[in-house]
Specification:
alpha+beta, eight-stranded parallel barrel, elongated, five-stranded antiparallel sheet, 48 strands
């Protein structure tokens, strides 16, 4: 039952206001924030603690040491309401009926105060520990945490029930209502979730041990965000329990304490030891603000308040306001459509987020200005203050039809629509480029005796980073496609020194002018060689830059005698590589062809795998309208009965089937008119049978065969190169 609390009295004081312009520490968005410290006449020993915005537009603060609840108007009027001595109020929140509820750990109880100042403190009956955080919950109840490892629920009439089953740690702190209708709370090194009926689940995976999660808030992205006081981190946990920690941008030893969602779509937190206010975007980008905050003031609580501001308390005896300047909607400009085919197009635009993170970026398109279809941007443009190129792929279009399209982008400042632009799909397939087709072999790394053997089958080879072999192959009467594979780097092509890479290529060609073509990297889009973000826009942009630099260097050094420049490309469902590399860079004009490796695939029917991934070849040509160079394609054989392949590139084949697949693919490629090369992978089997490396046209002892003995594929390749009928395919 509730009982009326005794009050020592109240007092009203005019506030003295000290204003200071805040500049972000090392932040690009410094001008977007102004911080005001308000010295409210609070005595230094009161230790303003938690803060929340009341329903009437005022700020409410718990005075931890002075045992008071303080109300502050945005105009600067302070009213203090005193509680029973030594109650040490801490957490505070707005309840279901618009009254303020707060915890009193000093006397193990919970209090309530109306906006007008009517105060009730509820006796500690049913409350077994020191109360801490408090939150409005479902069904009109309040929920609070306690230091003894229990979570309490109190009705508006003061009836208390505690829950401890399933909670394994003490010193619970923050608590908040989640998007799933449950309460989420912090423990010593875990995050807990409790249902309205009291069922508890704890989450610890992904949380650094000993980091001391402190406060927790619901973010604008529908996840829960929490501070880690001793870990100098901000954590994010999804409603499913997946945790991500963020530390970049947070000064070590700063003690992140309280956290709250802001009106700008970000989260804001206090750094008690650092004397700073931090901001973290839903993507995890942190900015710290310190100027305008008195050193040693120990920022504590924080909340979104009136006037689109964040308000925070300082334990030294002040209240602060983080004034957020009005966010502007994105500035957008619709670009041109590129890579237009009969049924698809790449849509281009630029978006300037004007300092706020975009929540949406897409293109609208259709056969009229009513549009009707939409395609998401390949990636959001971030939160900078400069135009960013964005692209999207529009598919399923009608042939010979005119389409309208425009860019649409949204941030906290609003939604912006680009100007309407048009493009027309083609009515027939583009005419293929003319010219002959190379038929060759991946054959680098073998000794001199094998070169004459290869030369009897084909007149072109692809070799890797072994330029010393170029002259040997030329002397054998074979032309060289030189694949500068790397050096491979888990950081992607973007981690390489572009100028150094281009210089090396120029020096190699200068030493071996007989090189017919240079491949710029091997499968640069692939995470198996180039790291987890190989297909990122950043990596694609770096790669496009090297293509342009190499073209300029080759023209300058070799003129019309330069070798061909071949770009690493791919075309699969969901891949953005074509658009990211060529969309707005102009690099497509600087290359002579695009490289694909259309292996037969292992997850399709056998009849389809035998064809090779011809759709990939067709897709690249339709998108880029450049000659296509198939510099790797192959089918492995099983030279010992019962062996199994571990490759994911293709199924296994008999020697006769391998020969037929190679011959049929080369003839199909020659018939397209735009495939300029087919290089079979590879010359001789290598590696133990268990590795599935029997792609060669010759056997090897290591793979269980007779060293150097020709497979049927050798003859099939020889006959395909000479455009003769295959004698071993049936």
């Amino acid at each position: 039952m509730g009982k009326a609390a005794g009050r020592a009295g109240w007092r009203t004081a005019a506030l003295g206001v000290a204003l200071a312009l805040a500049l972000a520490v090392g932040a690009a968005q410094a001008q977007a924030v102004t911080i005001h410290e308000i010295y409210a006449g609070l005595i230094g020993t009161s230790s303003p603690n938690h803060i929340t915005a009341g329903p009437e537009g005022n700020l409410w603060v718990t005075g931890h040491n002075e045992a008071s609840i303080d109300r502050i108007t945005p105009a600067g009027i302070l009213t203090e309401f005193f509680l029973t001595a030594d109650t040490s109020p801490e957490g505070i929140t707005v309840g279901p009926e618009g009254e303020l509820w707060f915890s009193e750990p000093g006397w193990d109880r919970v209090g309530r105060i109306s906006p007008a100042g009517s105060l009730t403190e509820f006796a500690s009956d049913g409350i077994t520990g020191q109360t801490a955080g408090i939150a409005d919950g479902p069904e009109g109840n309040l929920w609070f945490t306690q230091n003894d490892g229990t979570v309490g629920r109190i009705t508006t009439l003061g009836s208390v029930r505690e829950f401890s089953a399933g909670i394994t740690q003490n010193n619970l702190h923050g608590i908040v209502l989640g998007p799933d209708g449950n309460l989420w709370f912090t423990e010593e090194s875990k995050i807990g979730r409790i249902t309205p009926s009291g069922e508890v689940t704890e989450f610890s995976e992904g949380i650094t041990p000993g980091s001391e999660p402190r406060d927790i808030a619901l973010g604008p992205d529908g996840n829960l965000w929490f501070t880690e006081r001793t870990g100098d981190r901000i954590g994010r946990i999804t409603p499913a329990g997946l945790v991500t920690e963020f530390s970049n941008g947070i000064t070590p030893g700063s003690e992140p304490l309280e956290i709250a969602a802001g009106p700008d779509g970000n989260l804001w937190f206090t750094e008690r030891a650092g004397g700073r206010i931090g901001r973290i975007t839903p993507a995890g980008e942190v900015t710290e603000f310190s100027q305008g905050i008195t050193p040693g003031s120990e920022p504590s609580g924080i909340t979104a308040g009136p006037e689109d501001s964040m308000w925070f308390s300082e334990e030294s005896g002040a209240i602060g306001q983080v004034e957020l300047l009005q966010s502007a909607a994105p500035t957008v400009m619709t670009g041109e459509a590129t890579s237009v085919t009969q049924t698809s197009a790449t849509l281009n635009a630029t978006v300037d987020p004007n300092g706020s993170s975009d929540s949406d970026c897409h293109f609208e398109y259709g056969t009229s200005e009513f549009y009707g279809s939409r395609a998401p941007c390949s990636m959001l443009p971030g939160a900078g203050r400069r135009p960013v190129a964005v692209v999207a792929s529009a598919g399923g279009l009608s042939e010979n039809a005119t389409y309208h399209f425009r860019i649409v982008s949204t941030n906290v400042g609003g939604t912006s629509y680009g100007a309407d632009e048009i493009f027309t799909t083609s009515s027939a397939a583009p005419p293929p480029p003319v010219g002959g087709m190379w038929v060759g072999l991946n054959a680098g790394g073998w000794g001199g005796d094998e070169k004459s053997d290869v030369a009897n089958a084909v007149k072109y080879v692809r070799i890797g980073d072994s330029g010393r072999e170029v002259g040997e192959w030329t002397n054998a009467g074979v032309k060289v496609d030189y694949d500068i594979e790397g050096p491979y780097n888990a950081g992607g092509f973007k981690a390489l020194n572009a100028a150094e890479w281009v210089t090396n290529a120029v020096l190699t060609v200068a030493a071996h002018p007989e090189i017919a073509a240079v491949e710029v990297g091997n499968e640069v889009y692939g995470d198996w060689f180039w790291g987890s973000d190989a297909e990122s826009q950043e990596n694609a942009t770096a790669y496009a830059n090297v293509l342009k630099l190499l073209h300029s260097a080759f023209v300058s050094a070799f003129g019309s005698a330069r070798p061909l420049i071949l770009a690493s490309d791919t075309y699969t469902e969901g891949s953005r590589w074509n658009a990211e590399v060529f969309g707005n860079s102009g690099a497509l004009e600087d290359v002579d062809g695009v490289v694909v490796h259309p292996y037969g695939e292992a997850n399709v029917e056998r009849s389809q795998s035998a064809l090779g991934n011809r759709a990939q070849v067709e897709g690249v040509y339709a998108a880029d309208k450049k000659p296509v160079y198939v510099t790797e394609v192959g089918w492995p054989t099983c030279v010992v009965a019962g062996c199994a392949t571990n490759t994911g590139d293709s199924l296994e084949w008999t020697q006769q089937q391998q020969a037929a697949n190679i011959y049929n693919f080369i003839n199909w490629a020659r018939g397209t008119g735009y495939v300029r090369a087919v290089m079979i992978y590879g010359y001789r089997d290598f590696g133990p049978i268990s590795n599935g490396e029997e792609y060669g046209i010759e056997e090897s002892e290591q793979s269980g065969g007779t060293e150097g003995e020709h497979k049927l594929a050798y003859t099939a390749l020889q006959e395909a190169a000479q455009e003769q009928s295959c004698t071993v395919c049936s």
